[in-house]
């Protein structure tokens, strides 16, 4: 790839790099139980990938004050990190693929709906900080997915226009965000089955997992 035409890859974290869906599901159920509000698997998978503020608003069926939303969001993530420290791991092949993409000259970023506390956990305790150039989390944006802001900020920080970046996502709101921002998008069938992704979103490519996101695949999408 030519240095004159830099290309980037922006990764969602949960469900793309980390096998975290069950840890998040556990923490939402645990908090819902504390608050005595209903929680279902259908609701969890429908909202997976959205910001906590958006999910909490839907969970309670009303607008929450900022202080209440922030407090409940952080409580949910405290429960998540407790569970994650016991069970969370990178998907197979993630470290190798990120290293290969870097070696091929791609500029890498994280674009996640997770709060800063989780992003620091991912960067420091899961080792992702050494593999990417920049990270964008929920505190860096005003609008969550399916709004493209998180990916647009990541591309801006990389100094690369959206048309020269691939977004790797697992959730339907994330795919919608990538396409709305003018990015190429690879959807990995980890959280959602391939047929669900195909029926409910329009990624440029659907792959089984992050292990399939090779420099050759990215290069073909971007013509880099």
Task: Kindly describe this structure.
The protein is of the alpha/beta class. The chain has helices spanning 21-35, 41-47, 52-60, 66-87, 94-103, 116-124, 149-158, 172-180, 194-200, 215-222, and strands at 8-11, 107-111, 134-136, 165-169, 184-188, 205-207. The chain has 2 domains: 8-19 and 89-222, Rossmann fold (3-Layer(aba) Sandwich); 21-87, DNA polymerase, domain 1, CATH 1.10.150. It has a 6-stranded parallel beta sheet, sandwiched between helices. Strand 4 (165-169), helix 8 (172-180) and strand 5 (184-188) form a beta-alpha-beta unit. The protein starts with 7 loop residues before the first strand and ends with a helix. The model has no long low-confidence stretch (mean pLDDT 93).
Summarize it.
This protein has helices at 21-35, 41-47, 52-60, 66-87, 94-103, 116-124, 149-158, 172-180, 194-200, 215-222; strands at residues 8-11, 107-111, 134-136, 165-169, 184-188, 205-207. It has 224 residues and is an alpha/beta fold.
The poorly predicted ranges are none
Strand order of the largest sheet: 3-2-1-4-5-6
Strand content: 5-15%
Number of domains: 2
List the helices and strands and how they pair.
Elements: E1 8-11, H1 21-35, H2 41-47, H3 52-60, H4 66-87, H5 94-103, E2 107-111, H6 116-124, E3 134-136, H7 149-158, E4 165-169, H8 172-180, E5 184-188, H9 194-200, E6 205-207, H10 215-222
Parallel strand pairs: 1-2, 1-4, 2-3, 4-5, 5-6
Helix pairs in contact: 1-4, 3-4
List keywords for this structure.
224 residues, alpha/beta, Rossmann fold, DNA polymerase, domain 1, 2 domains, six-stranded parallel beta sheet, 11% strand
């Amino acid at each position: 790839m030519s240095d004159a035409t830099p290309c980037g890859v922006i990764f969602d974290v949960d469900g793309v790099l980390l096998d975290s869906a069950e840890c998040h599901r556990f923490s939402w159920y645990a908090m819902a139980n504390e608050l005595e509000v209903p929680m279902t698997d259908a609701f969890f998978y429908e909202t997976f990938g959205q910001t906590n503020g958006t999910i909490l608003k839907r969970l309670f069926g009303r607008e929450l004050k900022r202080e209440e939303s922030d407090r409940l969001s952080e409580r949910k993530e405290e429960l998540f990190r407790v569970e994650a420290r016991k069970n969370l791991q990178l998907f197979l092949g993630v470290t190798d693929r990120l290293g290969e993409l870097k070696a091929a000259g791609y500029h890498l970023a994280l674009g996640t709906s997770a709060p800063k506390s989780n992003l620091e956990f991912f960067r420091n305790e899961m080792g992702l900080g050494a593999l990417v150039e920049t990270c964008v989390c929920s505190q860096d944006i005003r609008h969550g997915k399916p709004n493209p802001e998180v990916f647009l900020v990541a591309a801006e920080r990389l100094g690369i226009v959206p048309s020269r970046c691939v977004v790797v996502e697992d959730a339907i709101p994330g795919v919608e965000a990538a396409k709305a921002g003018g990015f190429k998008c690879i959807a990995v069938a980890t959280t959602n089955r391939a047929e669900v992704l195909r029926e409910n979103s329009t990624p440029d490519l659907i792959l089984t997992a992050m292990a399939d996101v090779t420099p050759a695949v990215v290069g073909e999408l971007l013509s880099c």
